[in-house]
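User: Modeling request: complex.
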Amino acid sequence: MGNPGTTDEPELSDIARWSRSNDLCRPFVDLLPVSGVAISVIGTLARRMTVCSSDTVAAQLEGLQFDLGEGPQWEVMKTGHPVLSPDLSLQRTSNWPVFGAAAAGLGVAAIFAFPIAVGAVTVGVVDLYRTTPGVLDGLMVSLARSLADQVATPAVKAAISSAEQDHAPESAGAPTMRREVHQATGMIIAQLQISAPAAFSLLRGHAFASGRSVEDVAADVVARLLDFRQLPN
Amino acid sequence: MGGMSREARLNAAFVMVADTLTADYDVVDLLHTLVRECTEILDAQAGGLMLADGSGQLHVVASTSERADLVEVMQLAAGAGPCVDCFTTGSAVSVPDIQASTEEWPDFRAAALEQGFLSVHATPMRLRGEIIGTMNLFGTSVGTLNRRDAAVAQALADVATIGILQERIAAQSQLVTEQLQRALDSRVLIEQAKGALSHSGALSMEDAFVLLRAHARNNNLSLRVVAEGVANRTLDLIPKLAAAAKPGPVR
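Assistant: Request completed. Predicted assembly structure:
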């Protein structure tokens, strides 16, 4: 696979090239007035794949929503409509109080989330963030929607192909399903002889109560540093 | 419908074809409605409809009579004829006097005349750049459709084309979302099963995976099915592992 040159002035038609080079996030940061972006493909039961994230804050925003089960992403998945929050400081008490405060803690001032749809089904979300407050004007909103449309098929393909690999690399740049979280869930299933949803709830609850990310706690479980049989109920 | 004016009949046809777009509908019903209404409104003797399959091959999918069907099948077999031309070029093809068209399509000409057809008008079914098939109206007298009638045929074909394409996109989308869901589900189950085995058998994640895969292969099961059993605690592979580790005859 050749590495396509990416120094040219970006255009919409370049999306095919980006998709080949696996950097589906790039057109969003290049063409829109935002600081960063993460693209996720989400199935039922919160089974999801982060297809790409442009930087660590974008990745953390994604992780936060996964951990908390709230945030603009969940709203987009539920309604199929974009969620535009040009100033998080005005919105902390609204739909996602915990996430809003945590996002502000990461230095995020504005969030714009757009649905990714295949046919009539919303299959994922593009999360855009900015470190300064301010609205996306109508033109930029249309552009973001159009980019989200174009990214749908390559994002879903990338998600399927990564999920089907038994040994997919899960680095920051590559698609990630947080495999350790599911491995840790499996370990808790065996430790406590409970169902998978119950095990995952315990994992998520423990992370929340100890102020850590689910991925972080999962890593400890997989490394056998944390055994849920030893935890007080 | 006999007493209905042509305009009223035409309006009714548009409503009928457009109606099929809104609710659940059967593509075959839509195509039969389209070709029947067009044939009657435009005073043709018979009509037929061809659609291309995934590889671009045309097939006859609806016709108002056996005679029209025969002519179209013959045309497809020969790979030449006004309807084939219409599909290739994306433009309507009118043959006002088939008897006079001696050169272009000898097989088509012979078949059409044998069935008593003297004229044909082929209308492309297309949306933007995509041509999905043609609608063909046959007459038993010479003469061409006037411009207005040709426009009516095209308009009805356009509405039907939108319906067909919508249905195809919907079917395709459903396939993709199902595939996505399945891929995500399988991966989650496999990772959970690895975790469960890793704990109960004190195995590394890698060894847990090897165990899962070996059990799947030895029992002709998919990895997903084995993983699901382990993750749901309905299948316990650890006793099998212990048995296999014992010396002596083991299966």
